[in-house]
Amino acid sequence: MFFAQSIAALAASAAVVSACAPELYKRDGHHPAHVKRHLARNFKRTNLPNPIEDTRGWTFDQSEEWNTLNQDWGYCFNGTQQSPIAITSSWGISKNHKPTFHYPSNLTGSFNIWDFGPQFTLDGRLSHHSMQAGSSHRRRMEVPNIEFEDNGKNESAYFKSWHTHAPAEHTIDGYRPKAELHFVHYDENANPRAVIGFLIDRHADAEPSPFFEALPKHANIFDNQTVSDIEIDLNQAIKEVGGYSNFFTYKGSLTTPPCYEGIRWFVGRDILYVNDAQMQDLLSVSTFSARPVNPIWLHAVNE
Protein backbone atom coordinates (compact mmCIF):
# COMPACT_ATOMS: atom_id res chain seq x y z
CA MET A 1 0.00 0.00 0.00
CA PHE A 2 2.77 2.59 -0.25
CA PHE A 3 4.94 5.47 -1.71
CA ALA A 4 6.81 7.54 -4.55
CA GLN A 5 9.99 8.52 -6.44
CA SER A 6 12.21 11.62 -6.59
CA ILE A 7 11.58 14.49 -9.02
CA ALA A 8 14.16 15.55 -11.56
CA ALA A 9 15.01 18.92 -10.01
CA LEU A 10 16.17 17.32 -6.77
CA ALA A 11 16.86 13.76 -7.89
CA ALA A 12 20.44 13.68 -6.66
CA SER A 13 19.63 15.18 -3.28
CA ALA A 14 16.53 13.10 -2.72
CA ALA A 15 18.31 9.86 -3.57
CA VAL A 16 20.99 10.72 -1.03
CA VAL A 17 18.51 11.25 1.81
CA SER A 18 16.51 8.07 1.27
CA ALA A 19 17.62 4.84 2.90
CA CYS A 20 16.49 1.15 2.88
CA ALA A 21 17.75 -2.60 2.27
CA PRO A 22 16.84 -6.36 2.65
CA GLU A 23 14.14 -6.51 5.30
CA LEU A 24 12.73 -9.51 3.49
CA TYR A 25 15.76 -11.62 4.27
CA LYS A 26 16.81 -10.61 7.78
CA ARG A 27 14.59 -8.24 9.72
CA ASP A 28 16.86 -7.07 12.53
CA GLY A 29 20.31 -7.26 11.01
CA HIS A 30 22.28 -7.35 7.80
CA HIS A 31 21.67 -10.37 5.63
CA PRO A 32 24.81 -12.54 5.38
CA ALA A 33 27.00 -12.11 2.33
CA HIS A 34 26.56 -15.75 1.31
CA VAL A 35 22.77 -15.29 1.33
CA LYS A 36 23.14 -12.22 -0.87
CA ARG A 37 25.32 -14.12 -3.34
CA HIS A 38 22.87 -17.03 -3.37
CA LEU A 39 19.93 -14.72 -4.07
CA ALA A 40 21.82 -12.90 -6.79
CA ARG A 41 22.62 -16.18 -8.56
CA ASN A 42 18.99 -17.30 -8.34
CA PHE A 43 17.67 -14.04 -9.75
CA LYS A 44 20.05 -14.29 -12.69
CA ARG A 45 18.21 -17.48 -13.66
CA THR A 46 14.89 -15.66 -13.83
CA ASN A 47 13.47 -12.66 -15.64
CA LEU A 48 12.64 -10.94 -12.36
CA PRO A 49 14.46 -7.78 -11.22
CA ASN A 50 17.06 -8.45 -8.54
CA PRO A 51 16.13 -6.56 -5.33
CA ILE A 52 19.66 -7.01 -3.97
CA GLU A 53 21.48 -5.72 -7.03
CA ASP A 54 23.62 -2.73 -6.08
CA THR A 55 22.73 0.22 -8.32
CA ARG A 56 23.90 2.96 -5.94
CA GLY A 57 27.47 1.90 -5.32
CA TRP A 58 26.74 0.89 -1.73
CA THR A 59 24.60 -1.46 0.34
CA PHE A 60 23.55 -1.37 3.99
CA ASP A 61 25.65 -4.40 4.87
CA GLN A 62 28.69 -2.31 3.83
CA SER A 63 27.84 0.54 6.21
CA GLU A 64 31.07 0.23 8.21
CA GLU A 65 33.04 0.49 4.95
CA TRP A 66 31.19 3.27 3.13
CA ASN A 67 34.15 5.62 3.51
CA THR A 68 36.33 3.17 1.55
CA LEU A 69 33.94 3.02 -1.41
CA ASN A 70 34.08 6.69 -2.39
CA GLN A 71 36.51 9.45 -1.42
CA ASP A 72 33.59 11.82 -0.85
CA TRP A 73 32.00 9.60 1.80
CA GLY A 74 34.47 10.21 4.61
CA TYR A 75 31.80 11.64 6.92
CA CYS A 76 30.26 8.16 7.12
CA PHE A 77 33.22 7.07 9.26
CA ASN A 78 34.79 10.21 10.74
CA GLY A 79 31.71 12.42 11.21
CA THR A 80 30.92 13.76 14.68
CA GLN A 81 27.13 14.00 14.24
CA GLN A 82 26.22 10.81 12.41
CA SER A 83 22.71 9.36 12.31
CA PRO A 84 20.90 7.31 13.48
CA ILE A 85 21.54 7.15 17.23
CA ALA A 86 20.38 5.03 20.17
CA ILE A 87 17.99 7.18 22.20
CA THR A 88 17.64 6.80 25.97
CA SER A 89 14.28 7.72 27.49
CA SER A 90 15.97 9.01 30.67
CA TRP A 91 17.12 12.00 28.61
CA GLY A 92 13.52 13.18 28.70
CA ILE A 93 11.64 14.68 25.78
CA SER A 94 12.88 17.89 24.21
CA LYS A 95 11.69 21.28 25.40
CA ASN A 96 13.60 23.01 22.60
CA HIS A 97 13.32 23.38 18.82
CA LYS A 98 9.66 22.37 18.73
CA PRO A 99 8.60 22.21 15.08
CA THR A 100 5.54 24.05 13.85
CA PHE A 101 3.87 22.25 10.96
CA HIS A 102 2.47 24.08 7.94
CA TYR A 103 1.09 21.22 5.88
CA PRO A 104 -1.99 21.64 3.67
CA SER A 105 -4.38 18.72 3.83
CA ASN A 106 -4.27 17.88 0.12
CA LEU A 107 -0.66 17.59 -1.03
CA THR A 108 -0.29 16.17 -4.54
CA GLY A 109 2.62 14.03 -5.64
CA SER A 110 3.75 10.64 -6.89
CA PHE A 111 4.13 7.34 -5.08
CA ASN A 112 6.05 4.15 -5.83
CA ILE A 113 8.29 1.45 -4.45
CA TRP A 114 11.85 2.72 -4.81
CA ASP A 115 15.06 0.78 -4.15
CA PHE A 116 14.29 -0.13 -0.54
CA GLY A 117 10.62 0.57 0.15
CA PRO A 118 7.69 3.00 -0.22
CA GLN A 119 8.24 6.65 -1.05
CA PHE A 120 6.15 9.73 -1.80
CA THR A 121 7.54 12.78 -3.61
CA LEU A 122 5.83 16.14 -3.73
CA ASP A 123 4.70 17.53 -7.05
CA GLY A 124 7.62 19.57 -8.42
CA ARG A 125 5.44 22.62 -8.93
CA LEU A 126 5.13 22.90 -5.16
CA SER A 127 8.72 22.30 -4.17
CA HIS A 128 12.01 23.21 -5.82
CA HIS A 129 10.98 26.17 -7.97
CA SER A 130 8.64 27.53 -5.33
CA MET A 131 11.46 27.52 -2.78
CA GLN A 132 13.64 29.63 -5.03
CA ALA A 133 11.00 32.13 -6.10
CA GLY A 134 9.27 34.91 -4.22
CA SER A 135 9.54 36.22 -0.69
CA SER A 136 10.07 34.11 2.42
CA HIS A 137 6.47 34.80 3.43
CA ARG A 138 5.19 33.66 0.04
CA ARG A 139 7.26 30.48 0.21
CA ARG A 140 5.87 29.65 3.64
CA MET A 141 2.34 30.17 2.35
CA GLU A 142 2.75 28.11 -0.84
CA VAL A 143 5.11 25.27 0.06
CA PRO A 144 4.49 22.74 2.85
CA ASN A 145 7.06 23.45 5.53
CA ILE A 146 8.06 23.32 9.16
CA GLU A 147 9.40 26.13 11.31
CA PHE A 148 11.80 25.57 14.18
CA GLU A 149 14.49 27.38 16.13
CA ASP A 150 18.12 26.41 15.66
CA ASN A 151 21.33 28.18 16.66
CA GLY A 152 19.33 31.06 18.08
CA LYS A 153 17.34 31.83 14.95
CA ASN A 154 14.05 30.74 13.44
CA GLU A 155 14.25 28.59 10.33
CA SER A 156 11.87 27.25 7.72
CA ALA A 157 12.50 23.93 6.00
CA TYR A 158 10.40 22.79 3.07
CA PHE A 159 8.86 19.35 2.70
CA LYS A 160 10.02 17.43 -0.37
CA SER A 161 9.37 13.72 0.19
CA TRP A 162 8.84 10.92 2.64
CA HIS A 163 10.11 7.36 2.72
CA THR A 164 10.29 4.44 5.12
CA HIS A 165 13.00 2.25 6.60
CA ALA A 166 12.55 -1.31 7.83
CA PRO A 167 13.33 -1.97 10.59
CA ALA A 168 13.50 1.41 12.35
CA GLU A 169 16.89 3.13 12.31
CA HIS A 170 16.55 4.84 15.70
CA THR A 171 16.10 2.86 18.88
CA ILE A 172 14.69 3.89 22.28
CA ASP A 173 16.15 2.06 25.28
CA GLY A 174 17.20 -0.71 22.91
CA TYR A 175 13.71 -1.11 21.47
CA ARG A 176 13.74 -1.16 17.67
CA PRO A 177 10.28 -0.87 16.06
CA LYS A 178 9.59 -2.69 12.81
CA ALA A 179 9.73 0.46 10.65
CA GLU A 180 10.43 4.18 10.59
CA LEU A 181 8.89 6.96 8.50
CA HIS A 182 10.88 10.06 7.50
CA PHE A 183 9.43 13.38 6.33
CA VAL A 184 12.38 15.01 4.54
CA HIS A 185 12.69 18.81 4.38
CA TYR A 186 15.08 21.06 2.44
CA ASP A 187 16.31 24.62 2.87
CA GLU A 188 15.80 27.41 0.34
CA ASN A 189 18.86 26.26 -1.62
CA ALA A 190 17.48 22.72 -1.99
CA ASN A 191 19.89 21.22 0.55
CA PRO A 192 18.51 18.61 2.99
CA ARG A 193 17.97 20.38 6.32
CA ALA A 194 15.52 18.60 8.64
CA VAL A 195 13.84 15.24 9.09
CA ILE A 196 10.66 14.49 11.03
CA GLY A 197 10.90 10.86 12.13
CA PHE A 198 8.08 8.51 13.17
CA LEU A 199 8.65 5.11 14.76
CA ILE A 200 6.17 2.57 13.37
CA ASP A 201 5.12 -0.71 14.90
CA ARG A 202 2.22 -3.14 14.87
CA HIS A 203 -0.21 -3.73 17.67
CA ALA A 204 -2.70 -6.57 17.81
CA ASP A 205 -5.48 -4.25 18.98
CA ALA A 206 -4.60 -1.32 16.72
CA GLU A 207 -7.18 0.20 14.42
CA PRO A 208 -5.99 0.64 10.82
CA SER A 209 -3.78 3.71 10.48
CA PRO A 210 -5.71 6.28 8.38
CA PHE A 211 -2.40 7.67 7.06
CA PHE A 212 -1.27 4.34 5.61
CA GLU A 213 -4.78 3.24 4.67
CA ALA A 214 -5.06 6.17 2.25
CA LEU A 215 -1.99 5.15 0.23
CA PRO A 216 -2.00 3.21 -3.05
CA LYS A 217 -1.42 -0.52 -2.75
CA HIS A 218 1.48 -2.38 -4.33
CA ALA A 219 1.72 -6.16 -4.45
CA ASN A 220 5.40 -6.61 -3.56
CA ILE A 221 8.89 -5.17 -4.00
CA PHE A 222 8.84 -6.01 -7.72
CA ASP A 223 5.79 -3.82 -8.29
CA ASN A 224 7.56 -0.59 -9.20
CA GLN A 225 4.67 1.18 -10.90
CA THR A 226 4.56 4.89 -10.13
CA VAL A 227 1.19 6.29 -9.13
CA SER A 228 1.02 9.98 -10.04
CA ASP A 229 -1.23 12.79 -8.87
CA ILE A 230 -2.25 11.22 -5.59
CA GLU A 231 -3.32 13.37 -2.66
CA ILE A 232 -2.08 12.76 0.87
CA ASP A 233 -2.47 14.52 4.20
CA LEU A 234 0.76 14.69 6.21
CA ASN A 235 -1.22 16.07 9.13
CA GLN A 236 -2.83 12.67 9.58
CA ALA A 237 0.50 11.11 10.58
CA ILE A 238 1.08 14.00 13.01
CA LYS A 239 -2.37 13.43 14.48
CA GLU A 240 -1.75 9.70 14.95
CA VAL A 241 1.17 10.39 17.30
CA GLY A 242 -0.64 12.91 19.48
CA GLY A 243 0.28 16.01 17.52
CA TYR A 244 4.01 15.24 17.73
CA SER A 245 4.13 16.90 21.13
CA ASN A 246 6.66 14.41 22.53
CA PHE A 247 9.91 14.16 20.62
CA PHE A 248 13.68 13.94 20.85
CA THR A 249 15.88 16.19 18.72
CA TYR A 250 19.56 16.36 17.85
CA LYS A 251 22.11 17.52 15.28
CA GLY A 252 22.64 14.68 12.85
CA SER A 253 23.32 13.54 9.32
CA LEU A 254 21.97 11.71 6.33
CA THR A 255 21.76 7.99 7.12
CA THR A 256 23.09 6.99 3.69
CA PRO A 257 26.20 8.03 1.71
CA PRO A 258 27.56 10.67 1.55
CA CYS A 259 26.39 10.99 5.21
CA TYR A 260 26.50 14.79 5.14
CA GLU A 261 25.89 16.48 8.48
CA GLY A 262 23.93 19.63 9.31
CA ILE A 263 20.55 17.89 9.56
CA ARG A 264 18.17 18.82 12.38
CA TRP A 265 16.60 15.53 13.45
CA PHE A 266 13.28 15.12 15.22
CA VAL A 267 12.29 11.64 16.41
CA GLY A 268 8.82 11.20 17.84
CA ARG A 269 8.60 9.35 21.15
CA ASP A 270 5.06 8.11 20.57
CA ILE A 271 4.68 5.12 18.27
CA LEU A 272 2.61 5.34 15.09
CA TYR A 273 0.74 2.06 15.40
CA VAL A 274 -0.62 0.08 12.47
CA ASN A 275 -2.57 -3.15 12.53
CA ASP A 276 -1.08 -6.51 11.56
CA ALA A 277 -2.35 -6.41 7.98
CA GLN A 278 -0.88 -2.95 7.39
CA MET A 279 2.47 -3.98 8.83
CA GLN A 280 2.55 -7.03 6.57
CA ASP A 281 1.73 -4.80 3.59
CA LEU A 282 4.55 -2.42 4.47
CA LEU A 283 7.13 -5.16 4.96
CA SER A 284 6.03 -6.84 1.72
CA VAL A 285 7.21 -3.79 -0.23
CA SER A 286 10.35 -3.13 1.85
CA THR A 287 13.88 -4.45 2.06
CA PHE A 288 16.32 -4.14 4.97
CA SER A 289 17.33 -0.49 5.29
CA ALA A 290 18.60 0.36 8.76
CA ARG A 291 22.06 1.80 9.25
CA PRO A 292 23.58 0.75 12.61
CA VAL A 293 23.26 3.32 15.40
CA ASN A 294 26.20 5.66 15.92
CA PRO A 295 27.89 6.64 19.21
CA ILE A 296 26.77 9.95 20.70
CA TRP A 297 29.46 12.56 20.01
CA LEU A 298 28.63 16.19 19.17
CA HIS A 299 24.94 15.55 18.61
CA ALA A 300 23.69 18.02 21.26
CA VAL A 301 20.67 15.85 22.02
CA ASN A 302 17.66 17.91 23.18
CA GLU A 303 19.92 20.95 23.63
Describe the fold and architecture:
The chain is 19% helix and 27% strand. The protein has 303 residues and is an alpha+beta fold. The chain has a single domain, classed as Alpha carbonic anhydrase (Carbonic Anhydrase II, Roll). It starts with 10 loop residues before the first helix and ends in a 19-residue tail after the last helix. The radius of gyration is 18 Å and the shape is globular. It contains nine helices and 13 strands. The chain has helices at residues 11-17, 33-44, 66-69, 75-78, 128-132, 136-142, 210-213, 234-240, 276-284; strands spanning 86-87, 100-102, 107-113, 118-122, 145-150, 153-165, 171-172, 179-186, 192-202, 227-232, 247-253, 261-268, 272-274. A hairpin with a 7-residue loop joins strand 11 and strand 12 (261-268). The strands form two sheets. Strands 2, 3, 4, 5, 6, 8, 9, 10, 11, 12 and 13 form an eleven-stranded mixed beta sheet that branches. It has a two-stranded parallel sheet with strand order 1-7. Residues 56-303 form the Alpha-carbonic anhydrase domain. Residues 1-19 form the signal peptide.
The value of Rg in angstroms is 18 Å
Per CATH, which architecture?
Roll
CATH topology: Carbonic Anhydrase II
Class by alpha and beta content:
alpha+beta
Shape: globular
Topology:
Layout: H1 11-17, H2 33-44, H3 66-69, H4 75-78, E1 86-87, E2 100-102, E3 107-113, E4 118-122, H5 128-132, H6 136-142, E5 145-150, E6 153-165, E7 171-172, E8 179-186, E9 192-202, H7 210-213, E10 227-232, H8 234-240, E11 247-253, E12 261-268, E13 272-274, H9 276-284
Parallel strand pairs: 1-7, 9-12, 9-13
Antiparallel strand pairs: 2-5, 3-4, 3-10, 4-6, 5-6, 6-8, 8-9, 11-12
Keywords: Signal
Domain Alpha-carbonic anhydrase: 56-303
Pfam family, one: Carb_anhydrase
